[in-house]
Amino acid sequence: MENYNIMAIVISHRSKNAPDVQKVLTKFGCMIKVRLGLHEAGNVCSEEGLIVLQLAGDSSEIKNFQEELNAIEGVRANTMIV
Prior knowledge:
82 residues; ACT-like_dom_sf; alpha+beta
């Protein structure tokens, strides 16, 4: 059975932090198999968002990716293996 490496990233103050998050996502882009971005939309665009990723790569690469994201103020990234 195949394992799936999943990362969830919560971004507070999206308008301020999204460019820094995007830089890290681009740096580790070859590891990203699937990307899904969610935020409240409608009359007001939410300042908090959630990105869900399916990742390829070994555990040390994934750890480095997670650490770089968590170093950004207002960003929380967690991983799990399913």
